[in-house]
Amino acid sequence: MAEDVIVLADGGGGERMMTFVRREILSRFASADPSGALARMADAARVEVDGTALAFTTDSYVVRPLEFPGGDIGRLAISGTVNDLACLGARPIAISLALILEEGLPLATLGRMLDSAAATARSVGAAVVCGDTKVVERGSADQMFLNTAGIGLIAKGRRLGGDRIRPGDKVLVSGTVADHGVAVMSKREGLAFQAAVSSDVAPLWPLAEALLAACPNLRALKDPTRGGLAAAVNELAEAAGVRIRIDEASVPVRPAVAGACDALGLDVLNVANEGKFIVVAAPEEVEAALAAMRGHALGRDAAVIGDVLAPAAVGPRVTLRTTIGGERVLEMPYGEDLPRIC
Amino acid sequence: MAEDVIVLADGGGGERMMTFVRREILSRFASADPSGALARMADAARVEVDGTALAFTTDSYVVRPLEFPGGDIGRLAISGTVNDLACLGARPIAISLALILEEGLPLATLGRMLDSAAATARSVGAAVVCGDTKVVERGSADQMFLNTAGIGLIAKGRRLGGDRIRPGDKVLVSGTVADHGVAVMSKREGLAFQAAVSSDVAPLWPLAEALLAACPNLRALKDPTRGGLAAAVNELAEAAGVRIRIDEASVPVRPAVAGACDALGLDVLNVANEGKFIVVAAPEEVEAALAAMRGHALGRDAAVIGDVLAPAAVGPRVTLRTTIGGERVLEMPYGEDLPRIC
To answer: What ipTM was predicted for this assembly?
Structure first.
């Protein structure tokens, strides 16, 4: 029974994690969530309280190293929660911040991470209203782990999600992919090109707000973190019950990131982003979505990257039209390539 | 500069932690929380959204061992968040559950902890609506850490908190103290009396609901976890700007717990509880509060344990009238006695 223990890929954001989470977690909580929000595994849960539609989400952060080109665990923790809320079209209202600290962690390190978290929260007007601090013995945790949860307010009548996606819709991405994962891996592995690549980690609520204003009928937003673009698009296609075809040549990738992925043996489409949206727009709103993103500093490199197609009885959910003209399955990554990327 | 690192007492729930949290955390987030909720360090933050009063709270759980007489980390994680919400008079609406798992953790262990969490949530009608799973390498965490956050709904017009406490009010406790901390320490240390002591860990919303129905003018509820009754009463006295006198002989303690505390060198008043409230009631509602609690399985041993007194210019905030008739300062514990108790 050598398999009956947790392995790193169980947290990798790919196929292995989906199976693990469904079998070991969701099955147990189905009867503790009559709303079905947990089972949908969206970026955030929609919770109706007294007629008000809220978004609610949580993530823990175990990234290694704590600081990497373009960001750190503090900025990551606030951005991740803001972006998950934004995927439901929700303005961030209140954020919690819980620390698990290893005995011996330098106070100066903690201070830098918290200053970064506070500055990130302030930059999007998200109030950090509650928290918790635990300390464990040396060797019982790796420096520091953070958890944030967040409450967002969804505007009346706004609905975003996989169930709103229709054949004929277009798939967009708000900018270049794989910057975060490559920045962290380059730093961790001490690779020479680390200076050339910077994480995209950023709180995207201002970009989402611009998109929502421009597109009253926006279909869906998705945060392509662990598992990258490939995992996010596969999850959208499955939630929507459609096929999606991505055009490889249209996906924006920085040359330094592409080079680093070659050196590290990674597929850019499987690598985590922390400041990007996958956007699904109705045909009549594609131009407005593109213009709204390109007019914003966080969406300058936005591009249309694919098409939503009618479901098929057999065959893959997501395909990739390659740069050399072929078409192949774009699989959900398995999830073991990039441990502790966020 | 040997002091400039995190020590275990920084998470111990006592004086050291209060100082650490104020200096290293709250100072950084003051400008990221205009509401001041974080700075109040209450069990939960009050958040007004669209005219609806919500409670919001978070806690991480690092208890060792994962299973102890009377409970486990799963029951603890749900109960802790339900109880923090209840301290604002809030019914639990939605809970998040985030896992940090160590590679190699047996799936069977994880399954037992999650079954326990799910059963605890179901028992009080609290829906677990979102979650997260991270896995770290063997040696980078100790088996499993959990985080829960929760959203609660505060009934219209209900206000509980230190600022409502007045001289002349009475202090009550909902039952015996120190059961949780002693159960965990007995198991951890392999002490012979472990079978005799059981943790009180329980989700207290049903007890809070009974209390709120009986006492329209209830002043405050407080969850006496890390730092025990002594820390909770000191925090209440400070928030209220009053003095409190506790009568030692009135504090209910199980004989086995008292004996274990003697053996372990612990003060029962400093030891964590996970299924108790400290209650402050107006004089005219004391009998109703006591009757409401004693009429409930979770409050059978409720007792009046002290008095709220007018503030004094000098002298201690909290005193203890001892069983031998003297009176001494009841200090905020320092916080290093009981690491990883929750």
So the answer is: 0.97
Nearest to A206 by CA among A285, A325, A293: A293
Report yes or no: A92 at the B interface, CB cutoff 8 Å: no
Which of B3, B133, B338, B342 best tests the A interface by mutation, with the highest count of A CBs <10 A?
A: B133
Q: DSSP letters along A115-178, please?
A: HHHHHHHHHTT-EEEEEEEEEE-TTSBSSEEEEEEEEEEEPTT---SGGG--TT-EEEESS-SS
Is the pTM for the entire model greater than 0.95? yes
Q: Name the residue among A61, A88, A31 with its Cα closest to residue B133.
A: A61
Which DSSP symbol is given to B291? H
Q: Closest approach of chain A CAs to the CA of B245, in angstroms?
A: 28
Phi, psi of B20 (to 5 degrees): -60, -50
Question: Scanning the structure block, which residue is given the tokens 């360090």?
Answer: B41
> Is the model's pLDDT at B30 over the cut of 90?
no
CB-based contact B12 A135, cutoff 8 Å: yes
Instruction: Give bridge partners of residue B309 from the DSSP assignment.
Output: B243
Question: Residue B1 — pLDDT band, cuts 50, 70, 90?
Answer: very low
pLDDT (tens digit per residue) in A299-333:
999 999 999 999 998 989 999 999 999 999 999 99
Contacts A97 to B, Cβ<8 Å: 29, 58
